[in-house]
Design a protein that fits this description.
Length: 628
Amino acid sequence: MSLNIRNICIIAHVDHGKTTLVDHLLRQSGTFKQHQSLDDRVMDSMDLERERGITIMAKNTSIQVGDTKVNVVDTPGHADFGGEVERIMGMVDGALLLVDAAEGPLPQTRFVLQKALAKGHKIILVVNKVDRPECKDGLRIQEVVNAAFDLFLELGASDEQCDFPIVYTCARQGWCTTNFDDIRPLINKEKTGSLEPLFKLIVDTVPAPKISDNPNFQIMISNLSYSEYVGRLAIGRVLSGSVKKTQRIFRQGVDSNGNPKIEPFTTTQIYTYLGLKQVEVPEILAGDIGVIAGCENFEIGDTVSSVMDSPPLPRIVVEKPTLAMLFSVNTSPLSGQEGEAIQSRKLRERLLKEVLHNVALKFEETETSDQFRVLGRGELQFAILIEQMRREGFEFMVGKPLVLFQRDENGSRLEPMERAVLDLPEEHASDVTRIFQERKGLLTKYEAMPHQEGIGKQRVRLEFDIPARGLLGIRSRYLTATRGDGLFSSYLIEYAPHKGDIPHRLNGALVADRIGETVEYSLLTLEERGVLFVKPGVKVYEGMIIGENNKENDMNVNPCKTKKLTNIRAAHAELLVTLAGIREMSLERSLEWIDEDEWIEVTPENVRIRKKVLNQNLRSVKREDRIH
């Protein structure tokens, strides 16, 4: 027995309208009744997702189209969250490729599409934002469709996959059409539209789930969740058979050494998706995406089966990490004053919990008992993890992200190479090219973007092949050079021979030489020495970095010095003098800025930068002594 089901995911670059489209799919499918309120961007459930406007965690929902149930999985659009993408591709049979009608396919579109095509999934091209001014004459829309076709060919799509259906959409207004000539009348409201053509395409184009001939129940765990009532939940697609509540089944996993491990358990609850909710059902059938409770040891990649001796499914494999970061217990003098100063055991447990949920992250012990190494795909992935932990009330420290090298058969060192795709105003192209070439970047493509007269500046798209090392700390310089108007994204392409030394930060640091509170009088005297990171009235301690030095060496300074008071009035009138400006060091900015001899101290209230060695008489201020 099986259901009439379609399982799809949505592939899109950041900010191309994916979550908005899902909102309207839910509304127009009747999943939500007329009187029910529905928040905008309902699929962005995490606070960080709503704040940043990106998808971080893969989430499930379902819509009912006639007698067909359509399970929709929202995939992250950023390559740093590639582990999420790898997991859900095995749960679906087709995909909506959502591209901006003006910007066209971008790097993260390419990354996720490549995974979908490799799985043999059927793709529907959804050209969104067709109401943008740049698309007024329709020529740009045709160019974007052609660019998508070229991308399919480049990624090795089959002839059947290249013959993809196209739907033109304005997700913001909730309409679409498969007829190019209807776009302008719909924009001008000469016609009314809905998402009905897209619903029909999904049902007609995406194949029903393939169900194994094996009569026994089998499911691959692709995601995890947790319930206060029933404990850990395993989420995945049922590949064969069916499972009922209170049925005795087996978890086929691996132990800490990677050896097979079988654990019997009884299902306590069975759920499936209805809209955004998990609803309790008596049975999950083959082809559906379901949720199982009853075992506290579920891990992503496990197979759950009704027969103990059936061979488990191949475990989920994700691309290897390219960056490593140290996490440490907070050892600063201000430890415990702004959050929970966790011990090494609790920090270790929290990081292991994250690795269980996120297969793209790896955990490693270090020689130091209170420091742990986490391996991942990019700075953004680390920044999200750090921000989540600090919002949970933890205090801890992190080090500079370091690139992971490999060796070839001759023992030569190989490093990860990334392709950076930049979209920026043409007037800044020369400055940006210089910045990337300084970091060993090779310009491989220079393309003028379509320009609408009277709307904005002429924009260009540049592509650089650059070592992953060269991308560390380059984002803030790029945004400064483009006055905040540039778009930046990248993806891993290969491992190549080491490209030589790349300058990271040429300037030293201004380091506080005592504990106390910063004083405006003292900071005014330090302004000429460099750029300050702290305001007056901020708690500092010996070894804490309060600014960037103008010179390459570090400088120990006293930011707490007050003006001497005397009973003699100065002959000259005192003028009102204020600080010229403070550079606010956010978490991402700090990750880009720090060197290998420095920590970022993270608390729920503050992000501070400090030296690993706090005592000034135990560390050198010379750059060559610090870094090497």
